[in-house]
Each structure stands twice: as C-alpha cells, then as structure tokens.
Amino acid sequence: MSDDGLPVVSPPFDADEPGQADTADAPRVAGVLLAAGTSSRFGDDNKLLATVDGEPVVRRAARTLVDAGVNPVVVVVGYEADRVRDAVADLPVRVAVNDAYEAGQSTSVRTGIGALGDTDASGDVDAAVIALGDMPLVDSATVETLIAAYAAGAGDALAAAYDGDRGNPVVFDRRFFDRLVAVDGDVGGREILLAGDASALVAVDDPGVRRDVDRPEDLPEGR
Fold first, then answer.
1. Which segment of 18-22, 65-69, 213-217 scores lowest on mean pLDDT?
2. Helix H or strand E encompassing 9
3. SS3 assignment, position 134
4. SS3 56
5. What is the distance between the alpha carbons of residues 168 and 188, in angstroms, rounded to a whole number?
6. In what order do the strands lie in the sheet with 199-203?
7. pLDDT value of residue 42
C-alpha cells in the first residue's frame, strides 16, 4: 500500500489474460498529452520548447506515447500554441487547442478527452493515457506496462509509481471520462484517481515518472 492509500501492483502481467495487447480483445487505449501551460517558473522561455538531447521537451513527451503504440494521441496546446504545435508537427498526433488554459490543468484534460471523440481514428476508445508535456524522461516501456496492467484488470485508474511514489502518466478507463471532463481547477484527474474504487499504482523501474521540468535546472545535464 502506498502513502496515498492505493495498492501497488507489479509486472509482469499475464499475457494470456483476456484483453492483453496480443489478443483480438485488446483494449483500445488513446493518449492525451497536456502541453498547454504557461511555464511560469521557467523564466522567459517556454519549458516545453527547451531541448533534451536536441529534441524539444514536448516532442519527446509526445513521442513516448507514439512509440508505445498509443492511438490516437491528442496533444493539448494553449500557451504559445503555434510554437508548441510546430514542435510536434512531424509526429502522428492530433493537436487540440485549449483557449482556457490559464484556468488550470483541468481545462486541458477536458479539451483532450473531448477531442478524442472528434478524432477520425478514435473508434471505440476503452481508456486514455493522460501524460504531461513537461515530463520528457518517461520511457515508452512504462506506458506499455501501464496499458498491460489495465488490460490484465489491475484497475480502472492506474498511475505509474517509482520506489512506491506516485508519478505520471495515468491510465483512466472510459467510465471516468465524464468525470474527467467535469473536474475544475488545477488538479487534473488526481482526485478521481485517489478516490477511485478500482485505482492502483503500477510499479515501474523508471525514475522519469517522477521528474518534471519546472525550472531550467530540472533539465538533464548534458542536454
């Protein structure tokens, strides 16, 4: 049990269970990348456009979802929308603009979940991975592990955890979509995760799930 009171589940998850990714019943999991914030603590520059190994932070975060096979992927932009859009323009993602981004993260969640229904490739989405655009060090294998845990029935709301500490991204079953759209303020889906009756943390060997970029010193050395 974590400090949040959520159970912690660990891979591997049984690939023979119904709903695993290699079966006809595999769940359809979409991705929503929240990339609309103002970078207020980063200084004059937009943190999402800073680079890690020559790649913009936001592009690296979006590529993590793409590389994990999540489809469709919606990138929610707001602050400096055109510049952020350009940073992910060569990736197979759909961009949704959140004009109310200054009202908090929940508005980006609302925009992203709403955009899933407008995406031609959305089909019948069973769940969505919600990831943060300022977390460029999350490994695509971590996203794959979260999806495998969801497919195996580990929970309907699952967050990645490193050393027992909750991080991001988070997978939400579609039964939470209406509640995610209704959340207010700057909390995103955290309250839904913590209060859920089928929520859990998925243990991963990935410190990137706990590392976001708020200030220039948060960028990896040697960038």
1. 18-22
2. strand 8-9
3. coil
4. strand
5. 12
6. 8-9, 199-203, 157-162, 165-173, 127-132, 29-35, 73-77, 94-97
7. 83
Three-state DSSP class for 13? coil
Give the 3-state secondary structure of residue 104. coil
- Residue 163, C-beta contacts closer than 8 angstroms, at least 6 positions apart: none
Of residues 71 and 15, more confidently modeled: 71
Structure tokens at 25: 């019943």
Q: How far apart are the first and last CA of the chain?
A: 36
Q: What percent of the chain has pLDDT over 70?
A: 88
Query: Quick one: pLDDT band at residue 156, thresholds 50, 70, 90?
Result: very high
* Per-domain residue ranges of the chain: 8-216
Q: Looking up tokens 């990896």, which residue turns up?
A: 220
The whole-number pLDDT of residue 186 equals 67
| Peptide bond between residue 72 and the one before it cis (omega within 30 degrees of 0) | yes
CATH code for the part of the protein at 8-216: 3.90.550.10
pTM score of the predicted model: 0.91
Torsion angle defined by CA atoms of residues 90, 115, 159 and 102, in that order, rounded to the nearest 10 degrees: 90
120 pLDDT higher than 70: no
- Cα 59 from Cα 84, distance rounded (Å): 9
User: Average pLDDT for residues 157-181, to the nearest whole number?
Assistant: 95
Provide the pairing of β-strand 165-173 with 157-162. Answer: antiparallel
Q: Which two tokens stand for residue 193?
A: 């995760």
Assess contact for 127 and 173: CB atoms under 8 A.
yes
